[in-house]
Specification:
Blueprint (H helix, E strand, L loop, with lengths): L3 E2 L6 E2 L1 H10 L34 H4 L13 H10 L16 E4 L24 E2 L4 E2 L16 H7 L4 E7 L20 E4 L2 E2 L5 H14 L5 E6 L6 H12 L3 E2 L21 E5 L3 E2 L15 H21 L7 E5 L9 H4 L5 H7 L2 H9 L22 E4 L6 H7 L6 H11 L23
Parallel strand pairs: 3-6, 3-14, 6-9, 9-11, 10-11, 12-13, 13-14
Antiparallel strand pairs: 1-2, 4-5, 6-7, 7-8
Helix pairs in contact: 4-12, 10-11
Length: 446
């Protein structure tokens, strides 16, 4: 991977930012209204007692289950039959964690990024329901897990919604320019979450990891994966190792004594639980040119061709000796360069483009083994299930439950309830409070 240094000394640029510079010959990356996302107004609150929450309800029974969130489609009684049918999609006992399918939340830490004056912003990849009056995510609902009151977090909301892998980018320090009101414990050697120049300023990975640990302990039948990418920050790597060692979390890093998990079977209860792995244990199969253009009919065909090639990689990975296998990602999302406003005459916004193009809905139909609805996408050339591993997507709130169930993930009724409340409804697109802003122009997105 090519590494570049940005002109403001924020450290090495991530691959996406570097590719943008190469593609357009930009001298500097513009930073627009970034600092405002990190101000005091954006501090995240998800305390169970203080957060504003929707009326408590059993949403599993009060909402019809539909593919488009409109309220039409399968009823909950029928969804029980559907759950039984898709049980055959669950990975077999002989499957390994590097060949079995899991739903991955792309740039999961962006779920902590509060709205700015521009709404969700260009790089916010995950969004929960936002309460503008309290300046907080609607978290901390009055639920009881295993008779214990547990503080939820945006990370555990993603897990409740079906994600079993979180894509997390970490650095050993944050930028005082981008986070002028950030954490004050600068000498604590904590790990800071980011996506490119978007930093999470109000909390650290160290502070949020316990909520993931607690969720995993309360769901011992589930694998939960944390992909850690330090983007070449050599000071961050030992901090990650120390943090995972402190909590007793296995960390796969492909060194001499620790391969990337290709020998770990899905039904191995001695290993099942929370597992971390470094980015070098993963093939992210990153293609920056797969984007959505409202004026170009080639977007979905390009994504389809990418899927076919990705499946070839999956087959090749599964054929390797277990000690040589890596986690393989499938990017079912639109990248920035392929969606750039310079070529597509549209505003670039990760969440809005995915929503407008109905990408998550098409993926849900593609992966649903009982669906007879024609879809834009096919899993493989010949219609076979294919070999998927980490299915990487934006906005788990949109169709995350359906997609996760379709690949065999077990989701409890309580988790599904919480997911719908965190997201504000079924298959909800969260616009970060901009829909009520008179200056918001939805037509910019096509």
């Amino acid at each position: 991977m090519m590494r570049m240094m940005d002109s403001n000394n924020f450290g090495p640029l991530d691959e996406e930012s570097a590719t943008i510079r190469r593609h357009f010959g930009l001298k500097k990356l513009a930073v627009i209204a970034v600092a405002s996302t990190c101000g005091a107004a954006g501090l995240i609150s998800y305390n169970r007692k203080s957060a504003s929450a929707p009326p408590k309800a059993n949403l599993l029974r009060s909402f019809p289950f539909s593919s488009d969130g409109s309220g039409s489609g399968r009823t909950n009684e029928k969804s029980l039959e559907w759950d039984k049918l898709i049980a055959d999609s669950a990975p077999g006992k002989s499957a390994t964690i590097t060949t079995a399918p899991f739903l991955m939340a792309h740039d999961a830490a962006m779920v902590y990024l509060p709205p700015s004056i521009t709404g969700c912003g260009t790089h916010k990849t995950q969004a929960l329901l936002w309460n503008d009056s309290t300046k907080s995510f609607v978290m901390g609902l009055e639920h009881s897990r295993n008779s214990n009151n547990i503080n939820d977090s945006p990370f555990t909301a993603l897990l409740d919604c079906g994600a079993r892998a979180l894509d997390i980018r970490l650095r050993s320090k944050y930028s005082t320019l981008l986070c002028p009101t950030g954490p004050t414990d600068l000498s604590s050697n904590k790990l800071y979450m980011h996506h490119s120049l978007n930093y999470i300023c109000s909390t650290t990975f160290d502070d949020q990891l316990p909520s993931i640990i607690e969720w995993s302990k309360n769901n011992p039948s589930e694998w939960v994966f944390l992909k850690i990418d330090t983007k070449g920050d050599t000071k961050a790597d030992p901090l990650v190792e120390d943090l995972f060692k402190h909590y007793g979390i296995p960390l796969l890093n492909n060194n001499d004594s620790n391969n990337c998990g290709g020998e770990w079977l899905m039904d191995d209860t001695s290993k099942r639980g929370l597992v971390g792995y470094m980015a070098k244990c993963s093939d992210d199969d990153y293609d920056p040119l797969i984007g959505y253009c409202k004026s170009d009919s080639r977007s979905y065909p390009q994504l389809q061709e990418y899927l076919y090639k990705n499946q070839e990689k999956g087959t090749q990975n599964a054929a390797k000796a277990p000690s040589e296998q890596q986690f393989l990602e499938t990017q079912l999302l639109w990248q920035q360069i392929g969606s750039t406003p310079f070529l597509c005459f549209q505003k670039y916004d990760v969440l809005h483009l995915d929503h407008k193009s109905k990408l998550s809905g098409h993926v849900a139909e593609m992966l649903n083994p009982t669906s007879s609805t024609p879809t834009y996408l096919k899993k493989t050339h010949d219609g076979t299930p294919g070999t998927y591993n980490m299915i990487k997507m934006n906005n788990i709130c949109e169709h995350g439950i359906e997609i996760a169930k379709s690949i065999g993930t077990f989701i409890t009724n309580e988790q599904q309830d919480r997911c719908y409340q965190y997201c504000g409804g079924i298959n909800k697109y969260n616009d970060c409070g901009m829909a009520n802003n008179p200056n918001y122009n939805d037509q910019l997105f096509g």
